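Subject: sequence -> structure tokens, single chain

Hey, anyone have a minute? Need the predicted structure for the following. Not urgent.
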Amino acid sequence: MPRTESANLARSWLRLDGVDILRGLAIFFVLMNHVNIRLLIAKVPYTAKLPALLVPSLIWNGQFGVQIFFAVSGFLITSTTLRRWDPLSSVNVRDFYRLRFARIAPLLLLLLSVLSILHFAQVKNFVVPPKVGGLGRALFAAFTFHINLLEANRGYLPGNWDVLWSLSVEEVFYLFFPVVCRTFGRGKLLISLLVGLVVLGPFGRTMLAHGSEIWSEYSYFGRMDAIAFGCLTALIVSKTRFSITLLRILGSGGIAILSFILGFSNRVYHGVLGRSGLEMTVLAVGTCMVIAAAAQTQWRSPRILSPLLNLGRRSYEVYLLHMFVVFTLFNAFVKMGKPLSAVPVMFIAVTVIAGVFGDLVARFYSEPMNRLLRRRSGDAANRLGSVIDGEPTAPAESQLAL
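Reply:
Had a minute. Here:
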């Protein structure tokens, strides 16, 4: 490969700070939400003297955080596919699945192994109850990506299992993505299919949920709209160069939408947008506006946002593993007598320790396994987007999803 081409390819795989900031924000809200749930279960009245608007904005935005994840994931997977195989109709389906396996499988398999051991050891908060089918049923659902369906039919799984519902939605989407791209990638039918998923989103969260609170939040059609939005954003950004004025409008408008949905989440959820299922759609639109602006301006994050940036770069590891940290610190909090003064410390500690834990797992397990599996599948160092040589976190694939 000519040196100039290699340099261009290297630049094309630079991380997007704006995207990582979005993911850091998303995982932060997930962490806040899961700590809050444990406190509510323990009947700790820590919100009694806090401003009514502040509480939901900080601790009830977990589902909104996942929606941001989905939009980012759709953008990244489509951008990656375009860079490797443009046009989309040329995607190598087998290689696509290999790349997904290399990124997703090592940590997922390790997590399921640890959870199985903890279940057999009868460790509190890790035992899969018989009413949801026991360990075998949970493992089958995890391996076949229908944890969300299992929970909708039989009730919630323990916390470390429950987070896998989003992986179920995402991986089912990507199971069909390369096949659909291969078949319809040259025409407008692919765009129509993605738009169809966007349109189905609000219905999936309302009418098609048939009154199930779990299915309204966890269903395939109810959450794939954000992934589809991300895919459409990648297609638009790859073919259209926006003016700096329009990029500023997109960035500012997207931030305004995110601020409104996240800052007034309780009112939005109970208002017209929430009742119609459109609140998640609007959030995905705002997220993709920010993504488009960040992608074309190559916006660089100020140093003050470095903690959020780093949290976003390890979002997959943090997301899958953070409940271990939540349960550990919460159990310590209970043993201390549940002092209200320790609640802010616990929120901060969960965020910091989950971030450090995710970073260590990524550095010493996920990324080495990712590179090893890619080498074995023939992903040579001179291939577009390879992670064989150079900085292991540079390629877009290393940013992928949940």
